[in-house]
Design goal:
single chain, 3 helices, 54 residues, elongated, mainly alpha
């Protein structure tokens, strides 16, 4: 899972030491999301589509 969201060297260090020293990256993207809320919204929309066809 860590390799899906972190650079390999950071994920490796985190798995070995359980922490990483702060590093500087010239370019990066940060994503903040609430997976549970997004999932609930998706399921609700899906169910509404199904019920609207019945």
């Amino acid at each position: 899972m860590l390799l899906n969201i972190l650079p390999k060297n950071i994920a490796d260090e985190l798995q070995k030491k359980k922490y990483v020293k702060a590093k500087k990256f010239d370019q990066t993207t940060v994503l903040f999301t609430n997976f549970l809320k997004d999932l609930q919204h998706t399921v609700r929309e899906y169910l509404q589509r199904i019920w609207s066809r019945v």
